[in-house]
TrEMBL record:
MF (Gene Ontology): ferrochelatase activity; metal ion binding
Species this chain originates from: Demequina activiva
Any single GO CC term annotated in Swiss-Prot or TrEMBL for this entry: cytoplasm
Substrates-to-products reaction catalysed: Fe-coproporphyrin III + 2 H(+) = coproporphyrin III + Fe(2+)
Official protein name in the record: Coproporphyrin III ferrochelatase
Pathway(s) per entry: Porphyrin-containing compound metabolism; protoheme biosynthesis
A Gene Ontology BP annotation from the UniProt entry: heme biosynthetic process
Similarity annotation: Belongs to the ferrochelatase family.
InterPro entries according to UniProt: Ferrochelatase, Ferrochelatase_C, Ferrochelatase_N
Locations listed in the record: Cytoplasm
Annotated NCBIfam families: PRK00035.2-1 (NF000689)
UniProt: Fe(2+) binding residues: 200, 308
Enzyme class of the recorded protein, top EC level: lyase
Amino acid sequence: MTETLPPLAAAQRTVPAKTYDCILLAGFGGPEGQDDVIPYLRNVTRGRGVPDERLEEVSHHYRHFGGVSPINQQNRDLQAALEAEIAKRGLDLPVYWGNRFWAPYFADALKALHEDGHRRVLVLVTTAFSSYSGCRAYREDLATALEEAGLTGELELDKVRQYFDHPGFVEPNVDAARAGLRSLVEQGKGERPYVMFATHSIPSAAADVSGPRETLPDGTPVATGGGEEWHQGGGWYAEQQRAVSALIMDRLADEFPDVPWSLVYQSRSGDPSVPWLEPDINLAIEALPADVTGLVVSPVGFVSDHMEVAWDLDNEALETAQERALTMVRVPTVGIDPAFVSGLIDLVEERHVAAEGDQPRDRVALTGLGPWQDVCPTDCCLGRAAKPTIASAG
């Protein structure tokens, strides 16, 4: 496994623990019926000038599932699991839930928790990796929601760090990949397996400015266990995912040594002339060597089996594998795995202490990149224009 020097300024950008009143589970949101699909897509694409005719063209995967995205129910389930873990630990931290693009919206969640008397809020975002869409956009939208709710200065919002290499995220992914490889063996397809770690593609320009700017991935090609070379690039977004994927494969080597693997991308959208991170999973499947007997696909870039997993992997990628007569096993995301839920509350306890003088939980990371920063520099994961955010520092 290749070691990468940590971004030292990020590793040291921590803040002292304090006492919070509640937790806000921050999600993306999704439609919950056919009539919701176009309004939801309007929310997601607001400001880009996309006409409804084009939105209807890209709505087919939601229409296929009756207009219902699984993501909202998955977040309800996660909220309930977090509440159960909090109760088990004896913490006094109610969990609220809000979304960027569909009800319950951030502003409504903030109004509700404020009306309940809470003032210090610790935010758990349902993304593990550093990028504009996975971190900064949430922080910007929360700052906007504070203003929309008329609560600027009334609420203190802090965000839990990115948790891509926390044991609570890594270990369930290790277990899932191991189970996927064992499934290939049971099906008689384990002689020459291959593992693909799938994540959401994003524009190359956005990927290249992901994470803190003071220290960057060095861009050196790195050999994988399969003798291939990673295509370096993608800023800290891709670097974090390469590091976690390599760690997972290293953990599997006791039972499945020397299995080739790669990081692949999915769910590309937008102008086809704009470069996005590659390779697309379907092209990667088509390019697999002819002697590969079975494929494990691990959606490591996601925390739940939402629409882009259910459609892009369970439909499109599976169809591509079937066209090659290749057995494909898509393993689950972390979802509400008890280790993941427990890990999220461990992250909360890094920042939250029940009383002054209590000691916060130690910060844990399994790669050389972490533990990641508690607060983000103002130039971290910049989007098209700098906007006010929560949880940032100069």
